[in-house]
Predict the structure.
Amino acid sequence: MKSWIYGVLAASLCAASNAYAAQNGVNYDPAHSAAYVSAQQKNDAATMTAVIADDLTQLRTLGFSLVKTFYSTYCTINGQKCVSIAELATARNMRLMLGVFEFPDHPDWTQSQVDAAVDAAFRYPGTVVAIAVGNEDMFDWQGTPQPAMQKRIVADMTAIRTRINNPKVVVTTAQREPDWMRLVASDPQKVLQNVTVIGANIYPFWGGSSEKINGKSVANNIQAAVANLRGKTAKPVIVTEEGWPSCGNNAGMKDMNIDAEIDYFSTWKTRPHDFDSYYFAAYNNISAGACQNDDANNHFGLCSAAGLTKDVRLLKCK
C-alpha cells in the first residue's frame, strides 16, 4: 500500500525465535490532517510541527511508542523549511522506523531524505531504531520489476548503512510480500544480498481474503507468512505494514466493514508472534469519503482523518 505522498532491534531480530519479545508499532503520516496539508502549502513549518507533535502525543496516549514513517523529515511544499519527526519523537520517549521516500523523478529530493535519515540516526540514537528506504516501489502493481528503482534503493541503503556505521540501526526496504518472493526467483540488482532484515507489507485483504476463515481472524495467519518468507530468504522479517479497512467498495475484496477492522486489530494486538509488526495505519486518509463510494485504501486508520474515534470498540481516539 502506498503512503500518502503529500504530506536494541537488530540483535533481537537476528535471534528470531519464539523467545523474542515482538514489538508492535503503527504507521503514521501527518498528511491525514487538513491543517498539516494547508500549512505545508503555506510554508508554515510552525503549524506543521504542532500537528505532528499533537499526533505523536495522541499516539503515545493510545499506547504506541514505536512508529513507522514514510519520510525521514517533513518539509514545506517548496522544501525551504523542514520538521524533524525524530526530534519530536525523542521528546515523547518514542522510537522510530524512519522512512526514506524514493521520489522517482527527483533524486535530489530523495538525497535530502537520505541525508535527514543519517542525521537523525546520529542526533537521536535512542530514537531511530530502523530506516526503511522505499515503499512498494521495486515492482509495479502488476508485479513487473522496476530495475532502475531497485538499483537506487540498494545504493541508498548501502550509503545509509555505511554512513551510520551502526549495526543496531536496521536498514531495509518496505516491499510487498509477493515482491520479496519474486526477488527470491530473480534478483539481478542483488536486493536480498544487500538487506540484513526483510521489511514486508502483508495484506490478506488485498489478496481477496475474508477477515475470518473458519471463525478465526486471518491476522493469525501472518506468523505462517513470515515463517515462509524467512525460509525462502534466509533473513529475519519485520512486518512493515498490515491491517484491515473499515469500509470501501473495491471489486473482489471482502469484509469491508468496521467489525472486520475491529476483529483484525484486536487479534493483531494479542496474537503470539516473534516478529515486529507495524499496523497500517494510525489515521484514515485525508481524502476518505462515504464508505459505499470510496476506495478501501482510505479507511485503514485506527482513528479518523480528523483524529476522532471511528468506533469505541476499535480505539478511543477522541
User: Anything to note?
Assistant: The CA atoms of residues 58 and 89 lie 12 Å apart. The two ends are 26 Å apart (CA to CA). The domain at 9-299 is CATH 3.20.20.80 (TIM Barrel). The chain has nine helices and twelve strands.
